[in-house]
Amino acid sequence: RKCGYIHCHASFIFFSLNKSMDCCYCDQNNVDDSLDKSLIGATNTTADQSYTTISPLNSHFMALSCRDTLRLIFQSLTVADLARASCVSRIWNSAATEDDLVVAAFTARWRIKVLVGRPVSCAFWRDNGIWKFAISHRISRGDSVTSLAVKYSVQVMDIKRLNNMMSDHGIYSRDRLLIPISNPRILENTICYIEVDKYAKREVAVLYLEGGPKREEQPLSSSGTNHMSNLSEHGKRRLIDSLRRSMQVDDGTALYYLAIAEGDPRSALSEFSADLTWERQAGLN
Questions:
Q1: Is 21 buried (19+), middle (13-18) or exposed (0-12) by CB count in 10 A?
Q2: Which of 62, 78, 108 is at the close of a domain?
Q3: 21: containing domain
Q4: What sequence ranges are listed for the domain LysM (predicted)?
Q5: Is 158 helix (H, G, I), strand (E, B) or coil?
Q6: pLDDT tens digits for 11-62?
Q7: CA-CA 20 to 30 A from 46: which of 9, 213, 240, 262?
């Protein structure tokens, strides 16, 4: 039924184009004559109907095999309809998967001016919901997940879910957070960048409210990191995984406490326990 819808859509557009062109060559006085002739010769032209009439079930109609015609039709389709059209035939697939058509359909819904970058996976184009976009907020002193949620009018859990955070402490090991977009109008006439966030571990179209993307800074160069330099990569990974399981936090939070404890796992657990105690006494949780 979905493919039939696309065929009907294509048939309607092409029929409208043909009808507007035919009006230039037809006089009003010849309308009745042409109708009579078509009725009289209807029985003799049944075999040729498949070649002269556009049908929703006739994907081999010559007009629907022309790339220019297909591009004209596909320009008005949504992302989901383009995906369905690409399953009809090879020529439809080659036309419906052209980069400019896909990008235009992806950005048209939110009126984005420019979309910079190419996604790692083609699955990125399958859905252009508002959850595919995020605001990049560079963390500064005094920021917290709660304060950012109030600033951008979003929920705390939405920020944690988007950034793959298990606790509020994960903010200290990052240089930025991705903020969900609550008002779609903020995307109008903007430039978005397709990026894979190393902490959130997801591919999103990022909006920078202040300038553009900057070169990533090195995370947390403290003495704790230097103290771990004598460990192998496998040893560091095992140590971080052990702390993460003990604290029941994400990797970034475990790395943060390991850094402020100068690489000592016992001190890292003590610091984490002290912070949890302070939060309970302050009534934050």
A1: exposed
A2: 108
A3: 2-108
A4: 135-179
A5: helix
A6: 545 444 444 444 444 444 444 454 445 444 544 554 455 455 544 455 556 6
A7: 9
